[in-house]
Amino acid sequence: MSAPDEDAVQLARAQLEAVVEDIRAVDGNAELVAEPGFADVVAAARHRPIVYLAAAESGGLALVVRDGAVSELDLPGLRAGALREKVDELGRWRAAFDRADAESADAAWRRWSAELDQVTGWLWDVAMGPLIDDVRPAGESFALVPCGLLGVLPLHAAWTPDEGLPAGRRYAADLAVWTYTANARALSACFAAATDVDMVGSVVVADPEATGPMRLPAMRTLGDVVKATFPAGPAPLFGADATPEAFRCLPPAELVFLGCHGKADPAAPLRSRIELTGGMVTLDEVLRLRLPARLAIAAACDTAAVGLDLPDEVVSLATGLVQAGAAAVIASMWECDELATAVVLVEFFRLSAERPPAVALRDAQRLVRDSTLRELRQRWEKALDEGAAWLPERAGDALLNRLLEVHDERPWSGVEVWAALSYTGA
Fold it and tell me: Which is nearest to 134 in space by CA: 45, 83, 183, 62?
């Protein structure tokens, strides 16, 4: 996919504005997606400091809103032209992977992964490294508002070499909890939704009998883990029961788990979809639903992905779930390995009993990234021996059997694996 020229950007901006107007027309969404004023930004930053990141032709800029004040940080290396080139190269290799047959898919995926690794190293040098030096986060949580094409990149996975750490690198995620938000008003709405005491239990929709993509047995196993951790709520919707009709009738819940295939449509974001048994639910439909949840987990490919040709990256399935009522959403930024996603989320469920969800996801990703296969197996086997509530026997046995397919010593250390999931909202 080539970088957009000026005419294409203007056309894309007009298309984006039309999409935003469509979203504003949905009952309950007018205030959520309205452009926030400075007072809205300061109010939202009381919940979590906000960092606006933007690239420009002459160099980038970070605006940090914290403790009622705004500080500015010049980022001379964050040039829009270089950013376009990086995103263009990633898009080219992702398109090659999408077109590849079975024989060439692995090579295309490795090349895309190598490009992603290079880009995240560059992101440290030009953006996240200087930002971290400036804010000295010391474990704080920050809400990132990535402007333009920065919205397609995993800023939390920016890295710099550090031979003293297991991966030989220090990542932005090691120094702070980085969440994402479309804007300040959306962040405030998310924190307000997080205080809803009527949301209890869990709703699970997983492993649908979709016609095109492969089945997702590890997502069904994760559904069992969810119900063990959040037992209240209706019975899980697996296989033939995971239909669009059932999705449209989901009740409010503390946790909504969607273990399904997803597909982003960058050219028409409202047609981005979750694929289910017998059909699909589009982002346009999601925006017209009310789906209150403390946390929605969309463990599917491309659920947080946004378009490469749009100048403002604020429309995705993840932000759609926020606008439907979820206080926070965990979603995938790119097509990801089902087992790797399951490994991260099992650790997330274990840690979430004692940590806020954004912190639990960050810590789970770091733990999985730095764990050896043997260490992970030993941790799960011990949990089964002790009858740990967070890992029911059937799910634990199924996951441990799947791990027999893995042979690398540190199988999840790559950015393309551990960093795929992002956290949007409160």
Answer: 62
How open is the CA angle 15-17-20, to the nearest 5 degrees?
A: 115
Residue with tokens 């059997």: 401
Q: At 284, give phi and psi (nearest 5°).
A: -60, -40
Tokens 């939390």 — which residue? 156
Phi, psi values for residue 279, rounded to 5°: 165, -155
- The tokens 């032209």 sit on which residue? 81
- Say which residue the tokens 């699970």 belong to: 204
Q: Is the dihedral of CA 324, 325, 326, 327 positive or negative?
A: positive
Q: Any residues with CB less than 8 A from the CB of 335 and at least 6 apart, and which? A: 97, 301, 302
Contact 409, 370 (CB under 8 A): no
pTM: 0.87
pLDDT at 259: 92
Going from the C-alpha of 409 to that of each of 159, 167, 227, 368, 405, the distances in angstroms are 21, 12, 31, 12, 12
Question: Alpha-carbon distance 411 to 406, whole Å?
Answer: 7
Six token digits for residue 89: 């190269």
Of 93, 342, 107, 92, the C-alpha closest to 207 is: 342
- The residue among 104 and 203 whose pLDDT is bigger is 203
- What 8-state DSSP symbol labels residue 326? B
d(CA 358, CA 362): 6
Tokens, residue 68: 């009622």
Reported as a single tens digit per residue, the pLDDT across 132-190 is 999 999 889 999 999 989 998 999 999 999 999 888 999 999 999 999 998 898 999 99
Half-sphere exposure of 7 (CA within 13 A, CB side): 0
Question: In terms of DSSP bridges, do strands 141-146 and 159-161 run parallel, antiparallel, or are they unpaired?
Answer: unpaired
Strand 60-66 relative to strand 69-75, pairing: antiparallel
What would the two tokens of residue 165 be? Answer: 């750490």
Alpha helix (H) residue ranges in 136-200: 184-193
